[in-house]
Amino acid sequence: MRKGEILGLYGLVGAGRTELARAIFGVDKIDSGEIFINSKKVKVNSVADAVDNGIALLTEDRKYQGLQMEMSVEENITIPCINCNSVKKDYFKGIFINRKATKRNTQEYIDLLKIRTPSINQKVKFLSGGNQQKVVLAKWLSTNPKIIIFDEPTRGIDVGTKVDIYLLMQQLAKEGAAIVMISSELPEVMGISDRIIVMREGNIVAEFNRDEATEEKIGRCCSLEVNA
User: Fold this and answer.
1) Global pTM?
2) What's the pLDDT tens digit per position in 107-137?
3) What's the Rg (C-alpha) of the chain?
């Protein structure tokens, strides 16, 4: 991955896209391979390791993996902040959580992402799907990540929220973040990615720059039994 780019990751169901993301983020054990960030080898044996190394993952299943549905908007956005070594000092006053800081941070992201909620105390289970997705975004952006993996970020949300998320991804890349976009919608991947990697049966089988990628080429790579 390169700083400031959106890297599309595409493949058919079962290609291993989500499994790759979970391994990079420390959710699942890595069987083989190494992770380098800024040319430095890093160990990611847990989610905490990933977050401390500036990696964030917006999971495909936001309700069961991305959010605590019975908790408030503020609590969901705050949880990663108080567990991330690089930023948690900003959210504590001695041994106690600094509620003034968590409220301010939550409100900033509500305004930035245009999250529609009656208050920061609203339980996220009562928000729409699009606003729930924005809360997931807010909680990871609060950790100041350098690498952000979006796994099916627009599934089940309205068109307006999709556009908001596309614009945010582009803005984050412009500010220097490295973005991974995983989607089962090929037009979506082609429309926003600077570079596209194709996976099949757990392996990377092809790579295309934006100007050379076509649906036909990518589709052929997904179905062939030989590498493209």
Assistant:
1) 0.88
2) 999 999 999 999 999 999 999 988 998 999 9
3) 18
Q: Which two tokens stand for residue 196?
A: 């596209």
In whole angstroms, give the CA distance from residue 207 to residue 198. 6
Residue range 3-47, pLDDT digits in tens: 999 999 999 888 899 999 999 999 999 888 999 999 999 999 999
Provide the 10 A C-beta neighbour count for residue 222.
17
Residues 6+ positions from 115 with CB-CB distance below 8 Å: 73, 109, 127, 131, 134, 135, 138
Domain limits of the chain?
Answer: 1-54+146-228, 62-144
Q: Report the distance separating Cα 72 and Cα 33, nearest Å.
A: 38
* CATH number for region 1-54+146-228: 3.40.50.300
